[in-house]
Amino acid sequence: MNALAYLVVMQLKNRILTLRRKPARLISYIILALFVIMALVSSGIGTKRQQPAEFADERILFLIIVAVGLLFFGLYINSGLSTGSTLFSMADAGLLFPAPISPKKILLYGLVSTFGKTLAASLFILYQVGNLRSGFGYGAKEISALFLIYIMMLMFGQLVSIAVYVFCHGDSRRRAGVRTIAIAALIGLLLVVLNIHRQHGQGIETTVDRVLDGLWFECLPMGGWALMFFKGVVRGSAWKMAMSLALFAASGAAILAYLAQGRADYYEEVLVSTEHNYKLRLAALENKNYTGKARKKVRIKDAEKGLKSAGAAAIAYRQILEATRSNRLPFVNGFTIVAALTAFVTAKAFQGFAAGKYIAFALLTYLQYFTARTGPLKTELTKPYLYLIPERSYKKLLAGSVVSFVKPCTDAVVIFTVFAASGGTDPVDALFLALAYAATGAVYTGMAVVSHRVLGGQPALLLRGILGSALLLVIMLPAIGSAVITAVLLPSGLDHLCMLPYSIVCMISAFVMFILCADLLDHAEFSG
């Protein structure tokens, strides 16, 4: 048997045999499979067929596909300009790179290995089967197309990241040139869209229609190609599907040819990014932070020298001081800007749509969840200083959560000010939405404490993710239910008050979580 084929077969065999020695992992896979089956079954049973007029505007999904594709493309280029991506693990690098095997075959092995991981990572799309069916009237054909699109974008994006890294590694002029081209392309795209809007001046819907129907827009890398394929599936256009697949395949083949040629020796460059990704995963398993970059020097003013607090308050003081040093505007960072832009886009996209503000709120809180998981509290809980301060546990826990509480409040003010100014809603609604956003941030902070208490010692990341998501769903259901019940009972003129019970229930839930975990820091074994 070929050496690489034998390696693939043995890896699959060992993964299956590992499940016998690690039943927790097997249970997590079974739970994941049951969730997928439930999502598929629930979408096909008990669903009353709606009239086409009752479905949501499919342009919403088109915009999401393009936005995700362009975002991935930009992130992969940025990754290529810094650490690069990789198709290999450290074991692959140590075993295959010194072996007398053709670099082209090793590259093909990396693609096959990455395809399997990408396929597993794409299963979450199946959870949206019910939403796509009830919201847009899509069936198995369209959902399969979305699944395929996501896989193609992830695979192609990793190739782009590797190619950019190999092309720019060790050459600052090339790196600056690629960055300049990417920024210029983004500015050019925005100028073209603004020019179309200015020429026709018939509202945002007309502009969206003309942009989405433009062939030039469908030719944009990744995002446009994905849109072209999906529109071809939805509208039965075989040439659009063929053109999209041809663009992905031709561009991917060109990148592979560049990597496989003798002048572009990708071994050394890929080894650096492989080692970086390995250290990232290792740090995640050990609940540590790793960036791989040298820390930039911070100029400390004389007025900042020395602690101005003692005991548990010193933790909060240090976190606030670090936040003010890292950004000119305290607690306003890149996420705040991205979320504000998201609020602006959703305000324009859903303008005039009654439920648009709630869709925007759901999207923004969904983005907030991922940043809350990597907040300062998670890092604080893994350090020994928090456990050594001679204070009550709940005081230290609250002090370590100050920034995690303040950050959502700051983001809420910025985000929903932009949302209201963009026409997404009126100022009163924006105020209640901002309060609900801050309350959701408090729940996420409480979830970080509960997860650390209950799942901190669980080594299976997949199982931790599944159980954490289930726990979050249980906690958030009462808040969501209170908002829905209030919206049904209140008259139409007071619908903005439906978010007030949501905020109150969220704050109560966060308070209860902190009370239940108040003794977390009294037990060092919970530190992991």
Question: Which terms would index this structure?
Answer:
mainly alpha; 0% strand; globular
Describe it for me?
This protein has 528 residues and is mostly helical. Helices cover 73% and strands 0% of the residues. It folds into three domains: 1-44, no CATH class; 56-285, no CATH class; 308-527, no CATH class. It has 23 helices and no strands. The two termini are 44 Å apart. The model is unreliable at 45-53 (pLDDT under 50).
> What would you call the structural class?
mainly alpha
Distance between the termini: 44 Å
Tally of distinct domains: 3
What kind of sheet is the major sheet? none
Rg for CA atoms: 25 Å
Q: Tally of extended strands?
A: 0
SSE series: HHHHHHHHHHHHHHHHHHHHHHH
Mean pLDDT: 76
Q: Name the helicity range.
A: over 70%
Beta-strand content: under 5%
* Overall shape: globular
Number of helices: 23
**Which residues sit in consecutive blocks of at least 5 with pLDDT less than 50?**
45-53
How is this fold's topology laid out?
Blueprint: H1 3-21, H2 23-44, H3 58-82, H4 90-96, H5 103-121, H6 129-136, H7 140-168, H8 172-200, H9 204-212, H10 215-218, H11 223-235, H12 238-260, H13 266-285, H14 313-326, H15 334-349, H16 356-372, H17 376-380, H18 385-388, H19 393-400, H20 402-421, H21 427-455, H22 461-489, H23 499-516
